[in-house]
Amino acid sequence: MKVTDLFKEGKFVVSAEVGPPKGIHIEEMIESAKKYLTKIDAINVTDNQSSVMRLGSLAVCKALKDEGFNPIFQMTCRDRNRIALESDLLSAAMFGIDNVLALTGDYTKLGDHPGAKPVFDLDSVSLLYTMGQLEKGIDLGGQELEGEAPTFAKGAVVSPCSDSLDAQLVKMERKIKAGAQFFQTQAVFDSERYIKFAEIAKKEFDVPIQLGIIIPKNAGMCNFMNNNVAGISIPASIIDELKADKERTKAGITGTEIAARIIRECKDYCQGAHIMTLGWEDKIPSLMEQAGL
Amino acid sequence: MERRKQVDYTKYVLKDNEELTALLEGKDNIFVIACNKCFKEFESVNETDGEDFVKFAEEQGKKVTGLKKVDFLCNQILTAKKLEGIVPEGTDYIAVVSCGLGIQIIAEMEDLPVIAASNSLNYIGHHGMALTQKTCGACGESYLNMTGGICPVVDGSKGLMNGQRGGARNGECDVDPKKDCAWEKIYQRLEKQGRQCDFINQDVQLRDYSKTNFKVVHDYVTAIRDSRLTGYNGGIHPSENKELAEDIPLKPFPAPETVVIPVSMHAGAPAKPVVQVGDTVKKGQLIAEASAFISANVHSSVSGTVIAIEPRPHSKGVDVEAIVIKNDGLDTLADSVKPAKPLEELTPEEIVAIVKDAGITGMGGAGFPTSVKLTPGKPIDAVLLNGCECEPYLTADHRVLLEYADDVIFGLKAVMKAVAAPKGIIVIEDNKPDAIELMEAKVADDETLEVATVRTKYPQGAEKMLIKNVMKRMVPSGGLPADVGAVVANVSTAVAISDAIQKGMPLVERAVSVTGDFMKEPANFMVKIGTNVQDIIDYCGGITREDATIKMGGMMMGAVLENTNVPIIKGSNGIIAVNTDYTEANECIKCGRCMDVCPMELAPLNFYKFGKENDPKALLANNIRDCFECGCCQYICSSKIPLVKWIKSGKQAIMEVK
Amino acid sequence: MLITQLKAKETIDALVVGKAFILNCFGCKEVYFPEKCATELQKELSDAGKVTGILTMDYICNPENLKLHLEARKDEIAAADVVLVFSCGVGVQTVAGLLEDKKVVAACDTLRLPGFQGVTPQEFDCDQCGMCFLNGTGGICPITACSKSLVNGQCGGAKNGMCEVDPNMECGWERIQKRLTKLGRIDILKNAPVQIRDYSTDDATKECKQSE
């Protein structure tokens, strides 16, 4: 089911993210999804996230779909050239996986195979364009596809709290021109900054945006993300909140409250939320309840 | 041997008309900058892409506000100078016809929007020389050890590391049938060397793509730019090889049985002999006198009998009139050898007269009469005492600084007094920390003296470089150091001046480094003028390679001695035995390295080009006369063109036209 | 234009089985050659009696001149089991091509250096992609200034303007963004068509190879 159809219905689309394991056993992951993600509209499956080799995104998407979930196939341009990317897009479409999130991908050096060849034959913009071409029944080599062309809900990402917001907006515009139909954002911790971004984005583009959410686990994690993760900026007040009662924080109560609050504050400025659980899938039901979803 | 044919090559082409049309849409008032080298055909001088673009733009109804063609646009520093203030008012865009480097340089330099009018192309080889089929993908690993020296990364179309993929037909690559399959070639070569086993048994190769690190490369670039561009443009860093002799103290070289003293050991007119065959002469006695304003007296370095006055071989390569003296071994001093008044009592004129009488000439090699230098006729702000010794191998000046420090300072003060300079600066390269330390201690109590430490870089010791580096002044084209208030003298010259004043001893001996990779026992000597070079080499145990090249002077500017039976003269700072260069010149490939290293910011490749075309006007227009023949261009030349020879003959050609 | 780095000492030791003839290339030394380390290492080998001769010249990538030099040293080369070459990959291949019967090994790894041959190394580089993108980028090359060589804009991985791959390097696309903003030309980026790189632009190389 295309998430774009959900947006059209005016639904507040909530998605969560799962990372495939480094191995071939996904039973635990499926169990967890069945337990905690049943009220979720779609599940993103990461593609060798952070350049760490794992089970393939497409395979896990297929497994989730078979279990009745609605997967969003994340695709990075790091590991495949245009031939492989197009081919995998066709494979996805054949399985009925029709939500694709186009990403450029982290650099190879940052992961667990630093010596690997970084491909980047295409990038997020040209990958979106490629999907558009395939939908027209033409591949990048200019050849026609046989039979009915595939269709996709074409997603992309944006960092609303990036230190270079202007560049992000330019890139967002390029992605839209290349065919992006919905956006998921990098995790937002600063509602004010997000709202500022969302107002500009609404005025300029008017595409559905899912607010990116991470449930903060503790102050150390926040400091680490502040220092190391692009596009993330966590206000000191949140870090102080997490420091206040260590027991509540450890149990995830404080983090869930913070995340729910951010969703509530931004709800009028987004068309959905995308929750990056980082292992805390079990907090999702509570989060959704507190956020009023 | 038949030389490989050089293939014309190009690094960029104009974008096609369709793309250019689209590019120029809505743009007007365009200034065009085109790179005029490195490029294309070997024979052409001027590239026409710039004009082609101008024509195209005008056909599109655009106003072109000007066209400037620049040799090696990518040479950021020289390009900046050439483009200063050149873009006229009313220009809205700058179009650049160049490879991507040139375009980026201009884009960074100018505030106006830049239009890239050309595409850069892949081309063969990454080096000046390597316009060959062999290239290097700079993978950071070098797989050549496994593969018999054939590169699988670039020779193989797929960059495979573990052997051929099976696509080759009849030994040709399946990607490009014109290409031999690299792996096929690798197998053949390894088989020939009986090394297939090595190959078969090696570990599986995984290419490591994480090797190239921005910081590593960035740091290299920064360091190189820093070392290359501080003080003055370019320069080079030949292997110093000073360790061969720098710690060996100066020893007096044993007095020879005969000395052969040429009447021409200096720039200018030969001296006129004032003794005759059969005369008895004493050490320090005048034997030939200066014959013109630019000339120098000559004195006997031994006591004994004049046995011949006749042309004898000279390091210049031709026979030169020389006074041959049989040494009686007594070292009887001439009557004239007696100390002058204390320096405080001498007038500038008296100092100049002593220097003139003592036959002192520049001892750094050029041999210009020092007395002429000491009468600059202009106000002098500082005397620079050149202790750089930037020539590789040579250590004579270094030893003089260490062992004759007081004489050096005395000589410097005498020069300062002669030219009424308020300041004396001893300039030493940073590869001689012991000399710097000693001299700094010596001048610590004297406010008029200082020691300047400069970076080790050739030709740091050249007059104009020294002045630019230390005083931040540019000697104008065709000018002399005095024009910018400077006098430059060599440290050995200072010692000679000190000897002349303090002892009354004229210039009859000097410090000589006898060194080189193939000198058996390197040494530093105080050698009497007129001593035979071969005797010195023999004394040092001879040379260790028969085919070694012997040079008088330094590696860079020294003269190759075909005949070693020549005398040590006033300017002989070294005898070196070094590797013979068997290379032969190729055609100029316009790589631009010569321009990059030229300390005078000239374009030496043009001296070759116009020299070959016998075009003195063009040589003159390219400022050939500013060249002081340091040889950096020849050293760096990727085609091994003897550029100094071309420059010398070019200067000669200009003289003849005049 | 290239820079060379010495291979690890153990690697070089392992390469020298028996006696070695050593060849140094100083041709691009004004660019970079690990002279000091190389000299030390060669002295060690020499002291261990593993060296039949050392030849230092420049531009060993010039086959004719290399041939003349090798001829003058042929006895020392014949006495060696391996020829150990300290140069970039082009040099090693040239030596190997001339000494086909000899085991020729490389003692250095070669890295690419920004800037073309002939000039002082630059902060800039041109990768000769054959489809100059500089018009859309304010004159900053996205192929070489971006770690991922992206041609449609930043990847979003930059932190405080620095590249995610190498925090010592400024994000190329942020530089482009700033330059275009300064020039008042940010529209050309917004309105640029989707760029897809053409990797089949090495025709000039092919042509050149054929004509040789």
Structural topology:
The complex is a heterotrimer of chains A (293), B (658) and C (212).
Chain A: H1 3-8, E1 13-18, H2 27-36, E2 42-45, H3 57-66, E3 71-76, H4 82-94, E4 99-103, H5 124-135, E5 153-158, H6 165-177, E6 182-187, H7 191-204, E7 209-214, H8 219-228, H9 236-244, H10 246-250, H11 253-266, E8 272-276, H12 284-291
Parallel strand pairs in A: 1-2, 1-8, 2-3, 3-4, 4-5, 5-6, 6-7, 7-8
Helix pairs in contact in A: 4-5, 7-11, 11-12
Chain B: E1 12-14, H1 17-24, E2 30-37, H2 49-59, E3 64-71, H3 76-83, E4 93-97, H4 100-109, E5 114-116, E6 118-120, H5 182-192, H6 196-201, H7 214-229, E7 250-252, E8 258-262, E9 272-273, E10 280-281, E11 286-289, E12 298-299, E13 304-313, E14 319-327, H8 348-357, H9 370-373, E15 382-387, H10 396-403, H11 405-419, E16 423-429, H12 433-443, E17 449-454, H13 463-471, E18 486-490, H14 491-502, E19 509-515, E20 523-528, H15 533-539, E21 549-552, E22 559-560, E23 574-578, H16 593-597, H17 604-612, H18 616-621, H19 632-636, H20 643-657
Parallel strand pairs in B: 2-3, 2-4, 4-5, 7-20, 15-16, 15-18, 16-17, 19-23
Antiparallel strand pairs in B: 1-6, 8-14, 9-11, 10-13, 11-12, 13-14, 19-20, 21-22, 21-23
Chain C: E1 2-6, H1 9-15, E2 20-25, H2 35-47, E3 51-57, H3 63-72, H4 74-78, E4 82-86, H5 89-98, E5 103-106, E6 108-112, H6 142-145, H7 172-183, H8 186-190, H9 203-211
Parallel strand pairs in C: 2-3, 2-4, 4-5
Antiparallel strand pairs in C: 1-6
Which structural class do the helices and strands of chain C define? alpha/beta
Portion of residues in beta strands of chain B equals 15-25%
Helix/strand-derived category of chain B reads: alpha/beta
Main sheet makeup of chain B: 6 strands, mixed
Helix content of chain C: 25-40%
At CATH level 2, the architecture of the largest domain in chain B is: Roll
The second-level CATH architecture of the largest domain in chain C is 3-Layer(aba) Sandwich
Lateral arrangement of strands in the main beta sheet of chain C: 3-2-4-5
Distance between the termini of chain C: 21 Å
Low-confidence stretches of chain C: 204-212
Number of helices of chain B: 20
Assembly classification: heterotrimer
The mean pLDDT of chain C is: 80
CATH fold description of the largest domain in chain B: Ubiquitin-like (UB roll)
Mean pLDDT across residues of chain B: 85
* Cα-based radius of gyration of chain B, to the nearest Å: 30 Å
Largest sheet of chain C: 4 strands, parallel
Overall radius of gyration of chain C: 22 Å
Give the fraction of residues assigned to helices of chain B.
Answer: 25-40%
CATH class of the largest domain in chain B: Alpha Beta
